[in-house]
Amino acid sequence: MTWLDLPADHPFGLHNLPYGVFSVADEGDDAVRRVGVRVGDHVLDLAACAEQAGMESAAVWRGGSLDAFLAEGRPAWAAARAWLTGHLSNEEYRDCVEAHLVPVGDVRMHLPFSVADYVDFYASEHHASNVGRIFRPDSEPLTPNWKHLPIGYHGRAGTVVVSGTDIVRPSGQRKPPTEPVPTFGPSLRLDIEAELGFVVGGATRLGERVALEDADEHLFGVVLLNDWSARDIQAWEYVPLGPFLGKSFATSISPWVVTTDALRAARVPLPGQDPEPLPYLRGSGDGAGTAYGLDVHVEVEWNGTVVSRPEFRDMYWSPAQMLAHLSVNGATVRPGDLFGSGTISGPHRGTRGCFLELSWSGQEPVTLDDGGTRTFLEDGDTVVLRATAPGADGTVVGFGECVGTVRPAR
Amino acid sequence: MTWLDLPADHPFGLHNLPYGVFSVADEGDDAVRRVGVRVGDHVLDLAACAEQAGMESAAVWRGGSLDAFLAEGRPAWAAARAWLTGHLSNEEYRDCVEAHLVPVGDVRMHLPFSVADYVDFYASEHHASNVGRIFRPDSEPLTPNWKHLPIGYHGRAGTVVVSGTDIVRPSGQRKPPTEPVPTFGPSLRLDIEAELGFVVGGATRLGERVALEDADEHLFGVVLLNDWSARDIQAWEYVPLGPFLGKSFATSISPWVVTTDALRAARVPLPGQDPEPLPYLRGSGDGAGTAYGLDVHVEVEWNGTVVSRPEFRDMYWSPAQMLAHLSVNGATVRPGDLFGSGTISGPHRGTRGCFLELSWSGQEPVTLDDGGTRTFLEDGDTVVLRATAPGADGTVVGFGECVGTVRPAR
């Protein structure tokens, strides 16, 4: 058995090959950051291996982030994947590869790229309907625009953090409906949102748009994303210009960027869109080819108890539709742009992707395996998101984990 | 007469000294970008001059942007201003300075810094009331939260462009109230928003906040900002998560960053806040010292006709309050963060800072000097924002211009 003899269901087999940025944990806080590829239970130091192998474009992985690689675009991504697959599966390159493998237990992971603009969508009909019922009980759950366009808003790129970063409970203004004026203090309704995040590469020029058919040229990869949310702060501030401080304190992403190439076997039709969207959201064909969903199974663990299993295939809008929409006004797309899907929720309680929905705004507590109950997050609570998707030839593609622990307000 | 013998009312005298990034126009598109300081009708090549003068920290201005200088923070900004003032007013350094001056007519200006996160506020009571009356005629003009917190939202950092960049008319979904479903096409209600933009320097760590009293440590400077807005796209998309594509296609800023140091003589009390805001927006003193307004006179020119003269002193919330608010939840502040004030509008028609208000949603056309009338922007229209403020000792501080011309939709 060698490091390459991985069981077929290993989430980080040769069909996956996600990219990340690591340092050697022993080397401390100032250790050099390196671009790595996860292979089984090891991380390949990509620049070092590629340079030793004499790969021409190895320099793109120097610099301790995926930024330069993201900028290169689809042809470079395809070439790198072919090169990697070849070198990892051919005995001839074994020495060169093995010289640059680090056990995954010995590394510390970092934010894999510089987040350019961060947009968060709202693409689950179940989530949007539930939130509508909770936040606006006297109105229709879905706003009139919801089925015509993927609703989104810009979030704070500077507070996107890598999995494992502690989350300090935010303070801010809250005004319960029963009080005449707002008060200031730590959020009392701290929540998660289980999402996928889409990592964009390549670039466009101001005034150009990314057509639906071209979205795959810019969709480099996918991460797990936890859009931490302070529901009390959000509820008071969000009319009329949308969420701001209720979201901007932190957004966690998983360290491994799973490529869209690794997710080709996970493509599934969308659940169905009625009314038919406008042509720029339909593509030039019948829509099935470009506006596809992804069969990603997500798991939400709260202090060791799995409390929800959202299915990404239930999402109403596709990732390609979201990218086509966000650039249809000519907004520039830059390498490192990140967009979240919005909370992934399904039709049943056990598939709801945030605690606002899961506890129905605090009215239906969640029981954990240790016997404790929860509505919103308490200090010291840890949330882990995990996901898998079907890979090529019956394999499994793993996303790893997106973890965060809540620390008391300062 | 030398280049230094500037009339006392010159908007770029020694009391101003704004920073920008220029290249020599003759050298073409790929010319080297240099950090410059505007002095009279010249631009000083700052790194070259400082290096020749043996200034220790001159390297911070190498690199063709203000990024490194912004990161250094207030002590470095103060030292640079003192050094500049000394070298520009002392005959001893004349040769060294003159060797690095370029006539302003010979330069091309660029985006002065990499925009980290861009936030847009909504800090004019007159503007928010007018927009409320127009967009939500059946509700109170101001939402219940408006006087408790400076409402803001994140915009798209990647589409902040320097003055002079053409603005391509955006396309998107519009649904007039009279139509049953949305249609797709070029915006028919393209508008401007005349604002000031605040350029942030220094940095905080995740979970820390910038107290009101410390805001000046992070407020490096001020630019003119035109938050181009497609009102029809915005009106259809903005409920419930706020403006998105109606704003994200372009935001123009003036090329010269006027330092907050140059604006000390322009500080004025706020118009008054009732109800009294929560303590974190009041500061530790009586509020007058830290939550001050700025006496900046803005001018909006439409195809050569000045159509409005908004006064920044009419703003309800102060820049320091906006910064304290945006970080009170522990959101990181990074060098290069930019926040807009929101449209500057006063109580009278001639002080309204956007065409939505000026034409009262298209019902009251504006007559230009050439006899033409306008409600919203037509292709080929040019808008120029200009501003001045009182400087030290009776001088005038100029902001220069923020210009944009509308090009047809693609």
UniProtKB/TrEMBL annotation, chains A, B:
Pathway: Amino-acid degradation; L-phenylalanine degradation; acetoacetate and fumarate from L-phenylalanine: step 6/6. Coiled coil: none annotated. InterPro entries: Fumarylacetoacetase (IPR005959), Fumarylacetoacetase-like_C (IPR011234), Fumarylacetoacetase_C_sf (IPR036663), Fumarylacetoacetase_N (IPR015377), Fumarylacetoacetase_N_sf (IPR036462). GO terms for biological process: homogentisate catabolic process; L-phenylalanine catabolic process; L-tyrosine catabolic process. GO terms for molecular function: fumarylacetoacetase activity; metal ion binding. Residues 119-406 form the Fumarylacetoacetase-like C-terminal domain. Ca(2+) binds at residues 120, 193, 195, 227. Mg(2+) binds at residues 227, 247, 251. Gene3D superfamilies: Fumarylacetoacetase, N-terminal domain, Fumarylacetoacetase-like, C-terminal domain. The active site is at residue 127. Keywords: Calcium, Hydrolase, Magnesium, Metal-binding, Phenylalanine catabolism, Tyrosine catabolism. It holds the Pfam family FAA_hydrolase_N. It comes from the Bacteria. It is an enzyme of class 3 (hydrolase). PANTHER family: FUMARYLACETOACETASE. This is fumarylacetoacetase.
